[in-house]
């Protein structure tokens, strides 16, 4: 074999080896041995725990503090409502200026009002019209004006107390109020204490102990005879 023939055969072998290597190796070359790299897993995000909202108004309100029982060293005598009541020396007195007329809008002018820095007590009375029976139904409907769904309970369900040795009823069902009612002859009385104190009933009892009922001194409504 001459030199040219051997050179030609060598060239053919070189080309064949190159083709074989091209078919065996993957397209990625040496860096791609074992196939293409697997994608890195995306880290999963753990959601932050959501804060539990605090319910609005869930805190219990602080109870009202007790107030001192007043020294009732002075006496107020009503000119319109037929009673007298004790009061502290520094109390502000607003006397009634009109006779209580049932069903009339009188803007509290029919009440005698005794006020201090912490509480207010008002007292009023009305003479029942002739022919009217003064019973619990009349007290609720005509005198006190109790409305269905309100905070006041019917008179017949209220606890009994005494005011000036007379049988009376007391109501503590309305917030910030204590009301005592009493009937003498044909005159019905209402005394209501207003305030924000945990011992409001005790304060009312202190005032009630000083009340003197004198229905004979109350002026009669126009056109009615005094009882």
Overview features:
seven-stranded antiparallel beta sheet; three-stranded antiparallel beta sheet; single chain; Protein Transport Mog1p, Chain A; disordered C terminus; 227 residues
Task: Give a structural overview.
It is a single chain. With 227 residues, the chain is an alpha+beta fold. The chain is globular and about 50 Å long. A hairpin with a 2-residue loop joins strand 6 (160-163) and strand 7. A 7-stranded antiparallel β-sheet has the order 3-4-5-9-8-7-6, covered by helices on one side. The protein has a 3-stranded antiparallel β-sheet with strand order 1-2-10, with no helix packed on it. The chain has 3 helices and 10 strands; from the N terminus they run αβββββαββββαβ. The model is unreliable at 11-36 and 223-227 (pLDDT under 50). 17% of the residues lie in helices and 24% in strands. It has a domain at 74-217: Protein Transport Mog1p, Chain A (3-Layer(aba) Sandwich), CATH 3.40.1000.
Please give the number of β-strands: 10
Helix content: 10-25%
In the CATH scheme, the class of the domain at 74-217 would be: Alpha Beta
The oligomeric status of these chains comes to: single chain
Q: Proportion of β residues?
A: 15-25%
- The largest beta-sheet arranges its strands as 3-4-5-9-8-7-6
Q: How large is the radius of gyration?
A: 48 Å
Helices and strands, in order, run as HEEEEEHEEEEHE
Shape: globular
Amino- and carboxy-terminal Cα gap? 162 Å
**Total of DSSP H or I helical runs spanning 4+ residues:** 3
Uncertain regions: pLDDT < 50 for 5+ in a row? 11-36, 223-227
If you consult CATH, what is the topology of the domain at 74-217? Protein Transport Mog1p, Chain A
Per CATH, the architecture of the domain at 74-217 is: 3-Layer(aba) Sandwich
Provide the residue-averaged pLDDT.
82
- Major pleated sheet: 7 strands, antiparallel
SS-derived structural category? alpha+beta
């Amino acid at each position: 074999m001459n030199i040219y023939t051997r050179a030609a055969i060598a060239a053919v072998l070189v080309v064949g080896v190159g083709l074989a290597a091209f078919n065996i190796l993957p397209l990625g070359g040496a860096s791609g041995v074992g196939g293409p790299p697997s994608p890195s897993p995306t880290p999963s995000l753990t959601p932050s725990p959501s804060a539990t909202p605090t319910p609005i108004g869930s805190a219990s309100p602080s109870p009202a503090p007790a107030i001192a029982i007043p020294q009732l060293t002075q006496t107020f005598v009503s000119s319109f409502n037929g009673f007298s009541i004790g009061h502290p020396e520094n109390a502000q007195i607003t006397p009634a200026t009109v006779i209580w007329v049932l069903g009339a809008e009188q803007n509290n002018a029919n009440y005698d009002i005794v006020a201090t820095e912490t509480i207010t007590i008002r007292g009023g009375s009305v003479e029942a019209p002739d022919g009217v029976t003064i019973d619990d139904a009349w007290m609720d409907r005509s005198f006190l004006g109790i409305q269905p769904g309100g905070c006041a309970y019917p008179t017949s369900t209220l606890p009994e107390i005494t005011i000036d040795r007379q049988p009376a009823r007391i109501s503590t069902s309305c917030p910030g109020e204590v009301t005592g009612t009493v009937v003498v002859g044909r005159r019905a009385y209402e005394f209501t204490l207003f305030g924000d104190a945990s011992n409001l009933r005790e304060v009312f009892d202190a005032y009630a102990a000083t009340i003197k009922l004198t229905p004979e001194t109350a002026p009669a409504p126009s056109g009615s005879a005094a009882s």
